[in-house]
Amino acid sequence: MNKLHFLVDQCTPPFLAAALRQGAAGIDVLQVGDAGVPPLGTPDPDLLIAADASARVFITKDRRTMPGHLIDHYAAGNHTAGVMLMRNNFALSVYVQKIVNYWTTTTADDWVDRMVYIP
């Protein structure tokens, strides 16, 4: 099964990536600013391109502008490995549980050009 890989946006809680790694052994999660991924301050449209190029589902809390960036991204003929938009006011454990559930029950093919709100 082709497992999901994740890129966590800089606007998410900084401890989300660490919590995901603790919540599931073997999960592949990088945070914007980590080695090998775009640096902090990278514009959202460039993050979408980078996430797709590295086959990573992009996790963000930017519900205000990200849907518009996605429309532009797709209109330009680009694709995504998937995007998860985090809703407000949920405990960290709720986000971790939902993301780990997706990681264990879906494949990368299930997420191509898909956007969901979590939880």
Task: Output the keywords.
single chain; alpha/beta; Rossmann fold; 17% strand
Please, could you describe this protein's structure?
By secondary structure, this protein is α/β, with parallel strands linked by helices. It has a single domain (5-117), classed as Rossmann fold (3-Layer(aba) Sandwich). The chain is 39% helix and 17% strand. The chain is built from five helices and five strands. The chain has helices at residues 16-23, 44-53, 66-75, 92-105, 108-111; strands at 5-8, 28-31, 57-60, 83-86, 115-118. It has a five-stranded parallel β-sheet, sandwiched between helices. Strand 1, helix 1 (16-23) and strand 2 (28-31) form a beta-alpha-beta unit. Helix 1 (16-23) crosses helix 4 and helix 2 (44-53) crosses helix 3 (66-75). The chain is globular, with a radius of gyration of 13 Å.
